[in-house]
Design goal:
The chain is 75% helix and 0% strand. It is an all-alpha fold and 320 residues long. It has one domain: Na+/H+ antiporter like fold (Up-down Bundle). The radius of gyration is 19 Å and the shape is globular. It holds the Pfam family Mem_trans.
Length: 320
């Protein structure tokens, strides 16, 4: 357990450092704009490209893995949505944000760096696949459910076009597509270009975690929403269990892939949930609280999960 704590503490330490800086140095949240541009459009895409371009292409084709992990995420979203609908008596937009808070983990900012350190470089491919398809799921579900809830920003064709545009212009997904293409054609970059991309990739996790901490500091927790009584257990406990069971139901997978999928599922609510809530003007303050509370609690739950994995308490196949 001490070794696990030592392994992941720098990641949560960077979030805490950003949080402390955000509380002490009271710059407005707009001051993060250029750092976020660097993280989202440059550093993290470089990391995804580096991970995938050097991966044997046969490892990238795993429809059963993608189906199992994406379906598990959808099941958690559906559970969160259903519970929220029952509490809100049919408020679809608010229930959609709560469903996303239950299922949309911080797989972009925290996922790659934490998985590569905790599990190893073999985690690169499952992390990239989960990131690509989970994000696609959320990009589809958010506008679709908001449209069903009455927020019809355009015709059905315009909504579908907007979803496709968001998917195929997202810098992470573009980097994933380019990286897979490079792997297929065995592209070898010149050494200076490779070193440059590696330098950018190395900066991705520290900058992303620091920016996340600052963002949390600038959105202080005013009250704990009662909906967290089901959002927290769904996101931090039920989601990794659902991924584990779903992978077991779909076949036998490399233990590294199972562990990587469970780790990503155990991550706290993504800051993008707050962005989506803000975009539609629904459940905004409570979405911010969900991100903060699940992030704080995930220090314990992620540590425990990694300890259970390392100790062999969680077998790769739940149905041997």
């Amino acid at each position: 357990m001490i070794a696990i704590v030592g392994l992941i503490s720098p990641f949560f330490g960077l979030i805490a450092l950003g949080f402390g800086a955000g509380r002490i140095v009271r710059h407005p949240v707009d001051g993060l704009a250029w750092l976020n541009v660097f993280i989202i459009y440059i550093a993290l895409p470089a990391l995804f490209f580096q991970l995938l371009a050097k991966t044997p292409v046969e490892k990238l084709a795993s429809p059963a893995f993608v189906t199992a992990t994406t379906l598990a995420t959808f099941v958690i979203f559906a559970l969160g949505f259903a519970l929220a609908m029952a509490r809100s008596r049919g408020d679809i937009p608010a229930a959609t944000v709560q469903g996303l808070a239950s299922a949309y983990g911080n797989i972009g900012y925290m996922g790659p760096g934490l998985a590569l350190v905790a599990i190893g470089p073999e985690a690169a491919v499952p992390v990239a696949l989960i990131f690509c398809f989970d994000n696609t799921l959320h990009f589809v579900m958010a506008p679709l459910m908001m449209a069903l809830g009455g927020d019809r920003r355009g015709t059905a064709l315009q909504i579908a076009g907007g979803v496709l545009l968001r998917i195929f212009t997202h810098p992470f997904i573009i980097a994933t597509i380019v990286g897979v293409t490079a792997a297929i054609f065995h592209v070898v970059l010149p050494d200076p270009v490779d070193r440059f991309l590696q330098l950018l990739a190395n900066a991705a996790a520290p900058c992303a975690l620091f920016a996340m901490g600052v963002t949390l500091a600038l959105r202080p927790l005013k009250r704990v929403p009662p909906e967290l009584s089901f959002i927290v257990p769904l996101k931090l406990v039920a989601h990794p269990i659902a991924v584990w069971l779903m992978l077991g139901a779909f076949g036998s997978f490399d233990p590294i892939w199972v562990q990587s999928a469970m780790l990503l599922a155990s991550l706290p609510t993504a800051t993008n949930v707050f962005v989506i809530a803000q975009q539609y003007g629904v459940w905004v303050e409570r979405a911010s609280a969900s991100v903060l509370v699940t992030t704080v609690l995930s220090v314990g739950t992620v540590t425990l999960l990694l300890y259970l994995i390392a100790s062999g308490a969680v077998p790769a196949d739940p149905f041997p």
